[in-house]
Design the sequence.
């Protein structure tokens, strides 16, 4: 799996960090998303997909399954 | 289950459709939407779209390929006009009857309007077309009156100022947003408007949109070139009249978000019982639309293992150069305490009490971790005494 984030779209809601903390983090100063791992291991795929659905800015995209 | 119909092709409806597929559902999904566009996002309409930072091509919720991948029977530009509960069919404006064995109702809300006819100068802000029409008119020096200083009106006022528009913001209550966020945070917002040159007038009731502006209840005319009416919304349940479903303040649902057997409501249109707070609520927040869409998809697929929908509500709003974020149920609070930072600096974290519990948290300019910690206090319904301290009624 490969995942992408559209940083200018992110609204800093932190939904992704609550669901997949090993893949996403937020900047201290403004809460904008930081992608920790763009090729997460298989056991995290479901959480990453869930994050992509939940993200209120549609800023997360799974580009390769 | 072989045929799911989702009415409303926006955040909640799309989340339901996506979740059905992710959970392995292989039957048909008919997604019905009366707007002509692929599902798109609304929060940017009053922000980046109105402010001209983005063009319309930035708002679709999914890339065309990802949408295609869901294998939907997509009926756009087509309104649902009726529901036959006993016969399990949805009637469409084009005369079609779509049968279902599972139904998701996600038709959202529409703006409330004022009496009077402002023609092309009277605006609301809900759809992409609304946003594009308004922004066309927002040129430097133009006079805009915004009726209603809720989050939507306030965001639009801020963005219009940034475009060099003369903005008057009219609000019936003494302090904008006070019932929602409390007096002190409301006053902080009012000051931000003053600082940015918005003419905020509180305690002012608008009667109608009139020739050349808006007419107040006392008969005064406030002159304007353009008028934005942002006075709240009405749930889109008209098409369900007479169906047998309970319609009150939206589509009435139980704690599973079910409105009838096999029929679920999600997003802005749905009022459901949230067991976490022990009360019914209807929430017009972007994250709730998605979370409820996901929850109802799962309940639809697993009738024997349904889960109550018990979220901690979340919203954000951008105002000038700061972003407000909040978790929980702030409305109806009895006390607000600033536990970090200072309101005057527009960097603070405020905690809200209802009864003896932490009900919500609202922050501006705070690190995400601080907010998440307090969200946890809301999620666990922490006792105020343990989390904050003594109980002091608001105003004391
Ligand atoms: C300008 C703006 C800014 C916002 N900013 C924020 C923000 O900063 N933060 C936040 O948390 N929330 C914000 N929101 C709220 C958020 O956008 C909504 O909560 C969210 O869009 C709700 O999604 P929904 O799918 O429930 O309903 P909607 O997005 O309203 O979608 C319902 C869809 O159903 C369609 N429909 C209605 N009736 C029928 C019918 N009979 N047949 C077929 N289709 C029908 C509608 O046309 C619409 O396309 C904002 C909203 C607006 C308008
Ligand atoms: S869920 Fe989306 S909007 Fe929220 S922090 Fe993550 S990427 Fe940003």
Sequence:
């Amino acid at each position: 799996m490969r995942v992408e984030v559209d940083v200018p779209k992110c609204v800093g809601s932190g939904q992704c960090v609550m669901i997949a903390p090993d893949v996403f983090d937020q900047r201290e100063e403004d809460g904008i998303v930081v992608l920790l791992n763009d090729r997460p291991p298989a056991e995290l795929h479901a959480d990453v997909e869930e994050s992509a659905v939940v993200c209120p800015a549609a800023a997360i995209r799974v580009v390769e399954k | 289950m072989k045929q799911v119909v989702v009415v409303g092709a926006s955040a909640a409806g799309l989340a339901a459709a996506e979740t059905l597929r992710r959970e392995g559902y292989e039957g048909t999904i008919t997604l019905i939407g009366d707007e002509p566009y692929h599902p798109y996002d609304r929060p940017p309409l009053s922000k980046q779209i109105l402010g001209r930072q983005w063009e319309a091509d930035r708002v679709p919720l999914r890339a065309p390929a990802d949408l295609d991948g869901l294998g939907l029977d997509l009926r756009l530009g087509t309104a649902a006009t009726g529901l036959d509960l006993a016969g399990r069919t949805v009637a469409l404006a084009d005369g079609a009857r779509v049968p279902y064995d599972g139904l998701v109702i996600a038709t959202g809300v529409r703006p409330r309007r004022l009496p009077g006819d402002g023609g092309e100068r009277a605006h609301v802000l809900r759809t992409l077309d609304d946003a594009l029409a308004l922004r066309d008119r927002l040129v430097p020096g133009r006079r805009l009156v915004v009726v209603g200083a809720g989050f939507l009106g306030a965001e639009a006022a801020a963005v219009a100022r940034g475009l060099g528009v003369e903005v008057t913001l009219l609000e019936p209550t003494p302090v904008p947003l006070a019932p929602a966020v409390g007096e002190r945070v409301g006053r902080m917002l009012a000051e931000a408007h003053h600082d940015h040159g918005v003419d905020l007038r509180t305690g002012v009731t608008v009667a109608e949109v009139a020739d050349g502006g808006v007419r107040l209840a006392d008969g005064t005319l406030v002159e304007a070139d353009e008028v934005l009416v942002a006075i709240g919304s009405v749930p889109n349940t008209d098409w369900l009249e007479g169906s047998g479903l309970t319609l009150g303040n939206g589509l009435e649902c139980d704690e599973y978000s079910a409105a009838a057997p096999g029929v679920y409501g999600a997003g802005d249109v749905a009022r459901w019982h949230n067991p976490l707070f022990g009360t019914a609520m209807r929430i017009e927040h972007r994250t709730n639309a998605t979370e409820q869409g996901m929850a109802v998809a799962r309940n639809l697929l697993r009738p024997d293992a349904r889960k109550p929908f018990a979220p901690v509500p979340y919203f954000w709003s951008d105002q000038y150069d700061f972003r407000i974020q909040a978790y929980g149920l702030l409305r109806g609070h009895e006390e607000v305490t600033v536990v970090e930072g200072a309101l005057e600096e527009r960097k603070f974290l405020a905690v809200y009490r209802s009864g003896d519990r932490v009900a919500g948290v609202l922050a501006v300019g705070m690190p995400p971790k601080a907010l998440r910690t307090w969200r946890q206090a809301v999620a666990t319904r922490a006792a105020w005494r343990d989390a904050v301290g003594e109980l002091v009624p608001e105003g004391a």
User: Anything to note?
Assistant: Chain A touches chain B through 22 residues (CB under 8 Å). The first helix of chain A runs from residue 15 to 19. The mean pLDDT of chain A is 96. The pocket of iron/sulfur cluster (ligand 2) is lined by residues A 5, 10-16, 24, 26, 33, 55-57, 59-60 (CB under 6 Å).
